[in-house]
Amino acid sequence: MSSPCSRHPHPHRLIQQPLTELTEKLRSKSRKITAPRQAILEVLRRHQHPITNKEIHTALGTADCDLATVYRNLHTLEDMGMVRRFDFGDGVARFELLEEGDDGHHHHLVCTGCSAVVEVEGCFPTELELALARRHGFTRVTHKLEFFGLCPKCAPAAPASP
């Protein structure tokens, strides 16, 4: 049995799925293909890392839709399994588009200074999850892990600690 990360690796690249395929997925789930929804999907396609509602709204410009429309559409897209919501502990939800077959399981390194996000490759071996589960009598164990620190831009000029 492999770990969730190795089953569904999340490459550090832009979503390759064309917008037409994404809108077809909306159609297949009996969802309307609105101009704001298409614009939001396009913004998410262009971003490699999770972004906030406000960042999406800014990228769209005020002509496409208001912030409430962004919130509503992201909620719908999340319910449909097309986007995944991330919480990095700062009270701000971030969203990332998922490709077909991607469960969105991956980890991040988050700067506590500027909120920059770096995706972390690799994952815990399934054996570690199974050992923890057995030791404590748990079943269906999964994990969510985010690392926090200061990025090179935000770190003081002092040498980094090991």
Describe the 3D structure:
- By secondary structure, this protein is of the alpha+beta class.
- It has 2 domains: 88 residues, Orthogonal Bundle (Arc Repressor Mutant, subunit A), CATH 1.10.10.10; 47 residues, Dna Ligase, domain 1, CATH 3.30.1490.190.
- Helix content is 36%, strand content 15%.
- It has a 3-stranded antiparallel beta sheet with strand order 1-3-2.
- Strand 2 and strand 3 form a beta hairpin.
- Helix 3 crosses helix 4.
- The relative contact order is 0.17.
- The N terminus is likely disordered.
Protein traits:
alpha+beta, globular, disordered N terminus, 6 helices, Arc Repressor Mutant, subunit A, single chain, three-stranded mixed sheet, Dna Ligase, domain 1, 2 domains
Form type? globular
CATH architecture classification name of the largest domain: Orthogonal Bundle
**Helix proportion range:** 25-40%
Q: Are there runs of 5+ residues with pLDDT below 50, and where?
A: 1-15
Strand content: 15-25%
CA radius of gyration: 18 Å
Distance between the termini: 33 Å
Write the topology of this structure.
Layout lengths: L3 H4 L11 H10 L6 H12 L4 E2 H8 L6 H13 L3 E5 L5 E5 L9 E5 L5 E4 L5 H11 L9 E4 L13
Write a brief caption for the model.
This protein has 162 residues and is of the alpha+beta class.
